[in-house]
């Protein structure tokens, strides 16, 4: 199951869609629907971590440092995404956390696509 990236990419694409949906529901004032989407998103965070851990343990021997860095930054993406939604609900400023989300997401995507088991977009 963890010999290719398909399951992992599927989980983070669905999570990204759920994240955008949660933000849109919040902006429309649909708190109950947003809560359902947010809880589903949290389930996909777990799926992302499980599939990512499987890939890490199977392929870290190729390049320990870079796969370890991608793992840490990927967990940072999940943390920032969660903080954005929670801070939105609490009506606190999300500027810094949203910037952190954007930066960590770009770093994670770059690392994921440039490492040996990723797609060859950057080579």
Number of strands: 0
Q: Helix and strand string, N-terminal first?
A: HHHH
Count the DSSP helices. 4
- CA-atom Rg in angstroms: 15 Å
The residue-averaged pLDDT reads 92
Q: How much strand content do the residues show? A: under 5%
Biggest sheet overview: none
* Relative helix content: over 70%
What class would the helix/strand composition place it in? mainly alpha
Distance between the termini: 26 Å
- The 3D shape can be described as elongated
Please mark out the parts with pLDDT under 50 across 5 or more consecutive residues, or reply none: none
Q: In a few lines, what is going on in this structure?
A:
The protein is mostly helical and 123 residues long.
Overview of the molecule:
This protein is an all-alpha fold. The chain has four helices and no strands.
Write the layout of secondary structure elements.
Layout: H1 6-27, H2 31-59, H3 64-89, H4 95-114
Give descriptors for this structure.
single chain; 123 residues; elongated; mainly alpha
């Amino acid at each position: 199951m963890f010999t290719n990236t398909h399951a992992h990419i599927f989980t983070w694409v669905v999570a990204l869609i759920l994240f955008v949906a949660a933000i849109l529901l919040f902006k429309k004032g649909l708190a109950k629907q947003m809560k359902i989407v947010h809880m589903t998103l949290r389930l996909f965070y777990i799926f992302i971590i499980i599939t990512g851990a499987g890939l890490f343990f199977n392929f870290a021997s190729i390049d320990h440092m870079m796969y370890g860095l991608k793992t840490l930054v990927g967990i940072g993406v999940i943390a920032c995404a969660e903080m954005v939604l929670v801070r939105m609900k609490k009506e606190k400023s999300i500027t810094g956390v949203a910037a952190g989300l954007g930066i960590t997401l770009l770093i994670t995507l770059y690392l994921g696509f440039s490492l040996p088991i990723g797609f060859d977009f950057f080579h």
